[in-house]
Design brief:
Blueprint: E1 4-16, E2 22-32, E3 40-46, E4 55-65, E5 69-79, H1 85-92, H2 102-112, H3 116-122, H4 135-160, H5 165-175, H6 179-185
Parallel strand pairs: 3-5
Antiparallel strand pairs: 1-2, 1-4, 2-3, 4-5
Length: 188
């Protein structure tokens, strides 16, 4: 059976349980390998911190809720990294990155290019080359990138081990950025 996926932007989070990270979200579909023909769908499942307006790839299956109709139940997910310059500027100047406006985001993308996020994470010291980006803004940007992007990468990698999304979130909550190193060292 082919793995079903939907790529889309989170339009609204209708419900979220902070204890187990279960969420019910409205997603505007931008791409899919399913025959679902509406522009939006309700997506449900165990998901870490997400932000309305961000784009994700959700893998899972369709379910029929007796009261709310057809929904997409998440098995795994990952944030889709903005790749176009305009998408990166919009992402970096969003509310997720306090103190970074459109001008600063534009300078960051001009310096780092279309792989800005990976480049910043690989060479954070280069943020000092961005005009008008003081040390506190550099630190805040880097911390937010590591928290948001890092968490998605850790959860995705843990899911590759066949772990359910609830267990991967518990592991991440306990070990944070060290999760992969700890699991690689001793998976038991």
């Amino acid at each position: 059976m082919e793995e079903l996926w939907i790529v889309g932007t989170i339009e609204a989070v209708f419900f979220q349980n902070s204890m187990n990270f279960y969420k019910v979200m409205l997603v505007e579909i931008t791409e899919t390998n399913t025959d679902y023909d509406d522009d939006e769908i309700v997506v449900t499942g165990t998901v870490g911190d997400v932000t309305e307006g961000d784009s994700y790839c959700f893998k899972g299956q369709f379910t029929d809720h007796p009261k709310y109709g057809q929904q997409f139940q998440i098995e795994t997910y990952e944030m889709t990294t903005p790749t176009s310059k305009n998408g990166l500027i919009k992402y970096l100047s969003s509310d997720k990155f306090k103190g970074i406006g459109v001008k600063s985001a534009t300078r960051i993308v001009e310096l780092f290019g279309e792989n800005a996020i990976d480049e910043i994470l690989a060479q954070p010291e280069r943020l000092g080359e961005v005009a008008g980006l003081n040390k506190s803004k550099q630190a805040a940007l880097l911390a937010s990138l590591r928290e948001n992007y890092g968490m998605e990468k850790v959860l995705l990698r843990l899911a590759e081990y066949g772990l359910g999304s609830q267990l991967t979130l518990q592991i991440y909550q306990r070990y944070k950025d060290e999760s992969l190193a700890i699991i690689d060292e001793n998976p038991y």
